[in-house]
Amino acid sequence: MSRDFQRKYSEWSFRLILFSTMLALLAGCGLKRNPIPVEMQAQASLPGYEEVRFFGDTTPKHMDKVMKQWAELSRKNMLPDEISFLSLSGGGADGAFGAGFLCGWTERGDRPTFGLVTGISTGALIAPFAFMGSDYDPFVEMFYTTFETSDLVQQRSYVSAISGDSVYSTEPLKKALKEFVNHEFIAKIAQEHRKGRRLLIGTTNLDAMRPVYWDIGALAQYGTPEADQLIRDVILASASVPVAFPPVYFKVKAGDKIYDEMHVDGGVCNQVFSYPPSVHLADELEKIGEKRKITLYVIRNDALVTEGVQVEPYIGGIAARSLAGLIRNQGIGDLFRMYYTSQRDGVDFKLTFIPPDYNEKSDELFSPVYMSKLFMLGHSMAKAPKPWHSAPPSTTARKGPDAVPAEVILK
């Protein structure tokens, strides 16, 4: 979530929770669904699909199969000399930074073809196009510099919000996904998946309160209209900030019955992710004799450092400040987890993020003016002499040792 969005989101959350609780006590309200029993949540599966998702806090059950394919591709000399992973974080409108960085990276001339791309929230919107390569840079630029709030969401009436599941409707975003993540595009993802490349999108299973990583390429292999829509639903779910946007429901089977599984923004569990820490990649690679260099590139659509402010002594201000701190510190924790996992596995770690001294403000949820400036910032940073940090910066330092101040980059 962007910084301005966090403040508005916190105030909405409190008001909706308060009024919804009052309304529920008086009459009982809310949408009806068929939730999966708690004791059956871990065994739920998608009818008609196999090995297309796994809990992000576990090792995939089909990990051996993935590594065997990697070994086969290596044996046939079908892998690049160096393997590159890319992780795209959440951040709402601040995703314009990551979009601009990718486009600037293309112009820099050393952007690799990624063997693994992962995305959360706004990063989930960018990830499929980053996965498919620089040919889709014009679309990424268009999306993050010309789209405004009304192109993506519609505000619901206060009554509808209280009696429903969100402040906004995401119908415009659904239509945009159907247009741009169409069957032809998904077929191209399937083709790359067969080459051994992987595209993972993270959501949060709100019933189980666990991260779920969806293998988009595996879903794309099915080639049906239903599978195509499932992919779009996964991307939408990953970007569905709770309270602000409605959850996405997936039909799952447990035992002999069908239930509704509720998914929301992947950022509820992780602001950014790569492969699960439970996967000891170094050990897995040693088993298949793989010795190629692996680099993990992380684009964090956030400034990482929280500036001091004087918090207003009212519920909305306290909630906004608390949520902003929770999200930011969770994101920092995610970066350190990924960094130490990389160190353990001999993976080269590269990180970029919004400079802490960048203080532009947005006048709406998705402002083309605000996003265009962030896009150009990311674009310029990617072309700078030192675009990457080799480790997460100190959470107390204003600038890392190799950081480039925003005012210098923008000159």
Shape: globular
Structural class based on helices, strands and sheet pairing: alpha/beta
Number of helices: 15
Helicity range:
40-55%
- How far do the termini sit from each other? 27 Å
Order of helices and strands: HEHEHEHHHEHEHHEEHHEEHEHEHH
Would you give an account of this structure?
The protein has helices at residues 3-26, 63-75, 95-108, 122-132, 137-146, 149-152, 158-163, 171-180, 183-193, 216-220, 225-238, 281-288, 315-345, 368-382, 406-409, and strands spanning 53-55, 82-88, 116-120, 154-155, 168-169, 198-205, 210-215, 248-254, 257-265, 293-300, 348-353. It starts with a helix and ends with a helix. By secondary structure, it is of the alpha/beta class. The model is unreliable at 14-28 and 395-411 (pLDDT under 50).
List its traits.
single chain; 9-stranded mixed β-sheet; alpha/beta; 15 helices; two-stranded antiparallel sheet; 411 residues; 44% helix
Blueprint of the fold:
Layout: H1 3-26, E1 53-55, H2 63-75, E2 82-88, H3 95-108, E3 116-120, H4 122-132, H5 137-146, H6 149-152, E4 154-155, H7 158-163, E5 168-169, H8 171-180, H9 183-193, E6 198-205, E7 210-215, H10 216-220, H11 225-238, E8 248-254, E9 257-265, H12 281-288, E10 293-300, H13 315-345, E11 348-353, H14 368-382, H15 406-409
Parallel strand pairs: 2-3, 2-10, 3-6, 10-11
Antiparallel strand pairs: 1-7, 4-5, 6-7, 6-9, 8-9
Helix pairs in contact: 1-13, 3-4, 3-5, 3-14, 5-14, 8-11
